Amino acid sequence: MTRTIWLNPERVNKTLAFPSSQTLAAAHRRLGRTFLTNLGRSGISRESSRSIRRYTGMGSDSENEKSVKERKKLMAVAPIAKPLAGKKLCKRSLKLVRRAAEAKCLKRGVKEVVKSVRRGQKGLCIIAGNISPIDVITHVPILLEEADIPYIYVPSKEDLAVAGVTKRPTCCVLITTKPTKGELTQDVQEKLQSDYNQVVADVKELTASLF
Asked: Which Pfam families does UniProt cross-reference here (predicted)?
């Protein structure tokens, strides 16, 4: 004799409820950490471990937060921000800004940059790509091109301000190889000139590939 069992749909749905995407992501991270820990105990190298993290998406929470922040920075960049520095060139450019600021070979802000260019000063201009409204700096690239001064955009005005040793977000800076007053020591001058030449060469190469 066949028996028919009727089930309550509401109770079945509660019992067989599927986990949320957040729960699955958390379980995925736990499994990834356990997997990498076991590999570490087996003697796997750090480079191999990093490669596994990168290709499987099992990075740490701090790495995930950094990638999210980087994506947000790029999303805030204006469409006209070209040429835009890549990750390596951006790092080199900001390092050069910091070195120029310490050597007092840096002009900060739109007014100072425009004034220096009109006075005939040469150098390298770094412009922030997340300025709003963008009209604040739209005239700067035209002025730089007329003066034959290379320029490059970086994603963040905040990062540009930190590199320029100033607390306020900076729209643009002009890097020169000679200070406004005084003279640099030979060691400082050589390091600044070397970094400057490298970044300018990379900027010109990037610009030539775009236009």
From this structure: Ribosomal_L7Ae
- Summarize the confidence of residues 141-168 as an average pLDDT: 94
- The pTM assigned to this predicted structure is 0.68
Tokens representing 155 are 């994603």
- CA–CA separation, 203 vs 207, rounded Å? 6
The strand ranges marked E within the chain are 106-108, 124-128, 151-154, 172-175
Nearest CA-CA partner of 87 in 67, 101, 107: 67
pLDDT on residue 74: 76
The helix (run of H) or strand (run of E) holding residue 203 is helix 186-210
Question: Structure tokens of 8?
Answer: 């309550």
> Is residue 63 predicted with pLDDT exceeding 80?
no
Find where tokens 């900001």 sit: 94
C-beta pairs of 104-107 under 8 Å, 24+ apart in sequence: 104/179, 104/180, 104/181, 104/182, 105/175, 105/176, 105/177, 105/178, 105/179, 105/184, 105/192, 106/164, 106/173, 106/174, 106/175, 106/176, 107/173, 107/174, 107/176
Region 117-143 average pLDDT:
94
**Cβ-proximal residues to 103 (8 Å cutoff; 6+ apart), any chain:** 179, 184, 188, 192
172-175/106-108 β-pairing: antiparallel
pLDDT of residue 31: 53
pLDDT value at residue 29: 59
Average pLDDT score, the chain: 79
- Dig out the tokens for 59 from the structure: 């990075």
Residues 6+ apart with CB under 8 A from 98: 163, 164, 165
